[in-house]
Design goal:
- The chain has about 270 residues and is an alpha+beta fold.
- It has two domains: about 90 residues, 2-Layer Sandwich (Phosphorylase Kinase, domain 1); about 170 residues, Transferase(Phosphotransferase), domain 1.
- About 35% of the residues lie in helices and about 20% in strands.
- The strands form three sheets. Strands 1-2-3-5-4 form a five-stranded antiparallel sheet, with helices on both faces.
- It is globular.
- The termini are far apart.
- Bound molecules: adenosine-5'-triphosphate (ATP).
- Adenosine-5'-triphosphate binds next to strand 1, strand 2 and strand 3.
Length: about 270
């Protein structure tokens, strides 16, 4: 039975497609019960790898059910459907940060600071509750019509109560992965998120990733290299210094989320 028919029988009326993931589609529906439009991510277990179905998807569903924060997407319910499909019903956003950057090319520093402080408040909440995201990137940072941040896609998230426990799973998205993960070393997953935050802020301000393939692979020598900004980009020194604390090649020198949240650039 087609997914839209099943969802219609549950009171969800299809409106439009919102996006596609590796093993999922995300669509917009109106909902009488929730009295608003909702986004439903439909994951097809038949198409997804076994590792994803057994390990990552149960974590995603459990963590999404647990977290509650103004800047994290709110999950309404989970619907099990015939054909080993599952629907995650969540609040709908207008676009993602990647789409916004494509639209405007670069987000001015003042506006980037407002959006980035919302992202940091969500990641601070996650790390305080011992949850790491491990796939923070512009595509997973949604924006509502009022330009409120909603972090989504907890497909690689996990709990990490013990700060000395390192992660080993290679996961996330290449341009946003810190060098230690690219080198397949055991890594501190919270420091992973901090690096991804640095890449995200750099993208917001410049409209491009901080490292192309060549410069990125030079980093794998674990040498700190100066970041190169496009000549015509208006990013002040305090902001560049701040990004430098996030994109520290040595994870032990990289800021913690508390240090990020208390940084002068964000507070001014
Ligand atoms: P990938 O495997 O590529 O990481 P995924 O399968 O985990 O993706 P999501 O990242 O959750 O899927 O969603 C894919 C896209 O759908 C997002 O980049 C975004 O554009 C859109 N999307 C997801 N959730 C919502 C939402 N709640 N409101 C509006 N759009 C959304």
């Amino acid at each position: 039975m087609p997914v839209d028919h099943i969802l219609r029988s549950l009171g969800y009326k299809f409106l439009s497609s919102l996006g596609e993931g590796s093993f999922s589609t995300v669509k917009l529906y109106s909902s009488q019960r929730h009295r608003c439009n909702v986004a439903i991510k439909i994951i097809d277990r038949e198409k997804a790898p076994r590792d994803f179905v057994r390990k990552f998807m149960p974590r995603e569903l459990s963590i999404l059910g647990q977290v509650k924060h103004d800047h994290i997407v709110n999950m309404h319910e989970i619907i099990e459907m015939p054909g080993r499909r599952v629907g995650i019903v969540m609040e709908a956003a207008a676009k993602d940060l990647y789409q916004k950057i494509i639209e405007v090319n670069r987000i001015p520093e003042v506006q980037s600071k407002t959006l980035f402080s919302q992202i940091v408040s969500a990641v601070n909440y996650l790390h305080q509750t011992d949850i790491v995201h491990r796939d923070l990137k512009c595509e997973n940072i949604l924006l509502t019509a009022q330009e409120q941040v909603k972090i989504t896609d907890f497909g690689f998230a996990r709990r990490c109560q013990d700060p000395s426990e390192l992660s080993r799973a290679f996961c996330g998205t290449v341009g946003y992965c810190p060098p230690e993960v690219m080198m397949r070393r055991p890594y501190d997953p919270k420091k992973y998120d901090i690096w991804s935050l640095g890449v995200t802020l750099f993208c917001m301000l410049t409209g491009q990733l901080p490292f192309d393939e060549t410069s990125y692979f030079r980093l794998l020598g674990l040498q700190q290299k100066p970041l190169v900004y496009p000549d015509d980009v208006a990013v002040g020194e305090p902001c560049r210094d701040f990004i430098g604390t996030l994109l520290q090649v040595d994870p032990s020198k990289r800021s913690t989320i508390q240090e990020v949240a208390e940084h002068q650039w964000l507070k001014n």
